[in-house]
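Follow-up to my earlier ticket, as requested here are the two runs.
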Amino acid sequence: MPRDLAVIDLYGMSLEIVRSRFPAVYQWLYERVKPERDQNNRASYKENWWIFGEARRDWRLMAGELSKFVITVKTAKHRISLLSG
């Protein structure tokens, strides 16, 4: 059963780029994500509040050549197939 969830992945984008190119996304994150991140003890989460989770640079390098991959979270009931890029 789909839950209508999405991940907003703005890795590699500065706050200025997000604000100018995707103003609705910026506003949504500013209102819902930033207040929680402001309370987080992890400096990287506070400073880069618009970035989803950890950068995972190694993963991005490895996945960059893939046209498709499957992501499964340990607690997931279903797998999701995504196109990269």
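Run two:
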Amino acid sequence: MRRSLTELANEHGSDKGTVGPSLDWGAHNYTDVYEAYLEPLRELPINLLEIGLGVTGDRWRSKIVHGRNTGGASVKMWRDYFANGRIYGIDVNEAAELDGERVRTFVADQGELDDLRALTEATGGIRFDVIVDDGSHRPDHQQVALGYLFDFLDPGGLYFIEDLQANGYGDGARGRQACEDVRNTRSLLRAIRAGDDPPRPHALPDPSRLAGEIEHVGLHVPRVVPVADEARGLLRRQRGQRRRGRRAIAFEPDSERLGVLRKRRR
């Protein structure tokens, strides 16, 4: 029997699944959403690009590399899921140990246009069927990459952006994923979905052109699965059911964590 994307994520220690690399690192439960979009492509010879590979190195110490995750967990997950696909990846750290017959990685910063241009030149300007942004999670970096790489997405292709936390202008966010120079990427996607101009400031070079290329915008709120609770079997709380007088789980407005854009078919 073929394994699901969630099973492959959990095996390799990716936090895209329901377990994560260890009991100390929670999971995002993104794989059910991914598989709903990607299962029809599973047997096809697709090209997939992932931004952010979860490897440690001189430019960035990736804390997710521990337990079941020996580095590049999601690349391994995509490789196993798309048995006929080619997987490309970029990271600020070198990840040649992941390279193989169907996997090719590059050192690049998603927030630097010169790096992205070098990537598309090195790959011969190929078009990708799927692009996954699991990089720095900074809104300015997400928008720079989206504004450039969407042109290299095939018509009908899918562009995913993970971890759309409140981390942009006016959000009061702090830390390495925050940026007050641009608005939060989620707010831009919500505006595009509504047919409105994206709020400023942003880092999109031509938002009107981008919006015209987008057929669909989906914003998803996967249920976060705390590892310790899963280990204890407290699944009722994950399902939002009442337990011992506790209130059912409710999600705050504007709490979408995973965005997906489908490029318009010509």
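The only thing I checked on run two: The chain has one domain: 5-241+249-263. Let me know what else you need.
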